[in-house]
Design a protein that fits this description.
This protein has 185 residues and is of the alpha+beta class. It folds into 2 domains: 102 residues, Orthogonal Bundle (Topoisomerase I, Chain A, domain 4), CATH 1.10.132.20; 67 residues, 2-Layer Sandwich (Gyrase A, domain 2). The strands form 2 sheets. A 4-stranded antiparallel beta sheet has the order 3-4-6-5, with no helix packed on it. The protein has a two-stranded antiparallel ribbon with strand order 1-2. Helix 1 runs antiparallel to helix 4.
């Protein structure tokens, strides 16, 4: 019973970290990264389709993304989706491939991005703490219903706290890395 609660909490915290990492990967940091366009949805024959399912996305240079669609007729739709996205980049197309030149970030934009990153990291920490609270409630109710002993309940609460501390520390490390990447000129 207690092991199931701990495993469930740990797996949910793991998913929170994965989500945060994916979120950070899609944020522009002055360097070209295929993850920047992964979440952009393209209206492909009336169906919203993720960009990475429509094209090869390559990074030949540090500040250049090349999108090579498998279906060349989808180029106008892809360009439209990029323009509507929050990337703030104008696509250049030659009819075969779409080039995205990633401009240098200004100091002000870097600071804004750093604030957004800190906010998302804090949201991740809140999610981790909510998972801890739910697990603690399950342990306490199991203890109250005499499904586990009082000692096992105390040990379970300690274990949940240790797991929570580990994941909060992971979020702090991920945040530090992303802030460093953003502030790098």
């Amino acid at each position: 019973m207690l092991d199931d609660i701990l495993k469930d909490a740990e797996s949910r915290m793991d998913k929170t970290i994965e989500h945060l990492i994916g979120d950070f990967a899609g944020m522009r940091a002055g360097r070209a990264n295929p993850a920047m366009v992964d979440k952009i949805m393209v209206n492909y024959y009336g169906v919203p389709t993720p960009m990475n399912q429509l094209a090869n996305i390559n990074v030949p240079e540090a500040r250049l993304l090349i999108i090579n669609p498998w279906d060349k007729t989808s180029i106008p739709d892809i360009e439209k989706a990029i323009m509507k996205s929050d990337l703030g980049i104008t696509p250049n197309s030659d009819g075969n491939v779409i080039r995205l030149n990633i401009p240098q970030l200004t100091e002000e934009r870097r600071k804004d991005l750093a604030k957004v990153v800190r906010k998302r990291a804090e949201e991740g920490k809140v999610a981790i703490r909510n998972i801890r609270r739910e697990a603690n409630d399950l342990i306490k109710s199991s203890e109250k219903d005499k499904l586990i002993s009082e000692d096992a309940g105390k040990k379970g609460l300690d274990d949940i706290q240790k797991i929570t501390d580990r994941f909060i520390k992971d979020i702090d490390q991920i945040l530090q890395q992303k802030e460093k990447e953003i502030m790098e000129v």
